[in-house]
Amino acid sequence: MTDSLKKIFLKRELLLFLFMASFGLFKQFLIYNLPIMAVPKGIHDDWIMVHLAETLRNGQWLGEYNDLTLTKGMFFPLYLAVCNFFHLSYLNVTALCYTISCMLFVYGLRPLLKKTWAMGLLYLALLWNPVSYSVQAFQRVYRNSISYIQVLLIFGGFLALYLRRKEPLKKQALWVLAAAFGTVSFFYTREDAIWVVPFLLVFLAVYLGSVFCLFRKTGERAYIGKGILVLVPFLFLWLTGQVIAAQNESHYGIRTTNELQDSGFAKMYKSMMAVKPNEDISGVTLTSEKLARMCDACPTLKELEPYFQSSKEFWAGPEGDADVWEVRDGWVFWILRTALAQAGYYENGAMADEICLKIRDELETAMDEGTLERQATMPSTYMSPWREEYLVDLFVALGKSIAYTTSYEEMETLVYLYSEPDENGGNLLFERITGDKTVWYESDMIELAGWYAVYEGMEDITLRAETAEGKILETAEFLDSEDIAAYLEGTGRTVPGAKKCRFHLKLYVEDKSQPIYLKSYRDGKLLDTYELGTDSDGFETERARLNVDWYWDVPERHGLLQRIAYKGVILNGIRQVYHYSGGVLAALGFGAWLFLSGLLLRGLWLGLARKKKTLSEQTVSEWLALTSLLFSYLVLLGGISYSEISGWNAILYWYLSGAYPVMIAFEVLAALSGVRILRNWNRRTI
After folding, report:
1. pTM attached to this predicted model
2. Which uninterrupted H or E stretch holds 255?
3. H-run or E-run covering 453
4. Nearest CA to 327 among 343, 344, 309?
5. Are 653 and 410 in contact (CB under 8 A)?
6. What is the DSSP code string of 622-682?
7. What's the whole-number mean pLDDT along residues 184-205?
8. Adjacency order of strands within the sheet including 516-522
9. Which residues does residue 531 pair with via DSSP β-bridges, in sequence order?
10. What is the pLDDT of residues 457-499, one digit of tens each?
11. Which of 10, 189, 383, 446 might form a disulfide with 75, Cβ 3.0–4.6 angstroms?
12. 414 with 569: CB under 8 angstroms?
């Protein structure tokens, strides 16, 4: 390459990078200051994520062991904990990571795209993917918000390795790391990561076969190194699992990464699903009558029978009738775990594992002896057993899933995203861990918490919030605070009663223009006065100290939302473009893939029958990349569709968040491939 060509190439590279960075920064600006969706009452989903993040942040691994501790992958809580450690905003970091993953994916597929304009087009299509700024898959603090990042790293990293299999080893390192990080993080984030396994297996077979043929042809030992290097992501996956399992064994007495995947509970649940029910209830395998028969046949399970009933009452809620309530397969395992917890078996992992394995053994014995009838189960523990009527339903649900994803249904970005505060201050935990803000419904509410200590002692001390006119808004109830007593002793002060000096106040104020004061009294005599809204963190006099840990003024947030409302308008407008064009692009992309597949078959026939080469390596690589994306997308949709018809309402964009970047990449690449082929139609080799 001449110097002039190098300068042109470098200029194009710089312009492409600046193009990507500019749009990435613009998107970063649009999501900045958006509120998060906090769901503190979702203890089995959202809350457990931030709770585990807090324990990791505090150096306590995953905290106290219970029926929730090892039910979710630990990577997302770790992700939250790392963001919190560096005092970074969860939303900002997530958006930035997605932008970087889009860039890596596009650069990874550069050998296919070739032209900078094609790279820019694919980048824009991926960057503005509506799922990456939607309520349930971005603003919500849950693990679905990083699935689309991980998916791009997995597919981008592995496809980049294949496309660069003839290049020097040093050019493989970045893509191995991207593939490894995406794979490891994805498998330890979600229990349903199995949908990428077919892609990984086929990739390994094709890649290793290809480098073996190249080694045989050229004799270059570098191809042996490449064959070993491509195994690194899988080695990291195994090693990470060993580390997590060892930590869980050390802390909880059970060697596993996740109890829903590999534990006595998983084995027990699979055996329960294998027992054939007498009643045929759609989507319900563990029927009430079946559970009763299993209890009669298994002595250990019989001991848990009262707890199954109380567990159903807990899950049915105050308005549900637990006596007649049948639980669908997608949720019934929570009934079992709640019952085991109520029975006291979650003191440690070893105890829980032992009782579950004992029940499993009794169930298997009963089925072997014919006391209970056995039925076939699915390979995945938590998939409902197959039924004949599912065949038609599955194809209907698959069609629904395709229509749902290609039209970007239900997605929305909410600026006025209200999170209902609960009595335990759960919203504040979400805010503290994420570094982002929630919005509460009570627009006239002020909420604060902290501690107040009078050095002479806390006897007969009253702390209350008042208006300037002396109207009492709320009187604080002092709460346990042994840590504060210890802290004060460490400073040389022994304060009687300091073990109860924390407070938490909610104030409802209609006229926010007037100042609000915290006033302390002893036996009705005024001691101190502090004006709220001023800097009172660590305020101290000779007599006392007031420390305000946090102070939230809800109306101020509503004012912020008014100022950033236009961001929601822009983002939702972009989503509308995807909504109306999605179906057309999907049809064009699939048509282009069919056309390319036809050319491939024709080329293979001509090559075998007439010894005539009509296919270029570019066409074969394009077909392999497109086919891997298409079939991975369909595998995920197939699994979600099966869950929809058999277990729970699963066709929802947050459960499908990993499908959208794969779908977009397929559509754009297929269209670009079709354009290339049509332009080169008159050439002998396509």
Report:
1. 0.85
2. none
3. strand 445-454
4. 309
5. yes
6. HHHHHHHHHHHHHHHHHHHHHHHHHTS----TTTTTTHHHHHHHHHHHHHHHHHHHHHTTT
7. 92
8. 472-475, 461-467, 516-522, 525-531
9. 517
10. 999 999 999 988 888 989 999 988 888 999 899 888 999 999 9
11. 189
12. no
